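Changelog-adjacent note: as of this version, every example in the card shows the full chain rather than a window. The one below runs 77 residues end to end.
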Amino acid sequence: MRCYVYRSPRKADAYVYLGARDDFDVLPEPLRQAMQPFSFVLELELSADRKLARADASEVLAHLAARGFHLQLPPAR
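Full-length structure tokens:
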């Protein structure tokens, strides 16, 4: 599955994965308001066996299929 990753300059180390490029309408309004403006980071082909730095690819794929986005927050300290 092709996905698109965006970061928020307002939330350090927070990223949003979208199933469709620039489809911010799938985000809940409070999340969109808290994180915008979004900066495009990368486009990638995602599969369950792909390694991601701070997320489980299977979980990201499940979220993209179910709701159209995945939110990656920084790890808890």
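Structural remarks: The mean pLDDT is 91.
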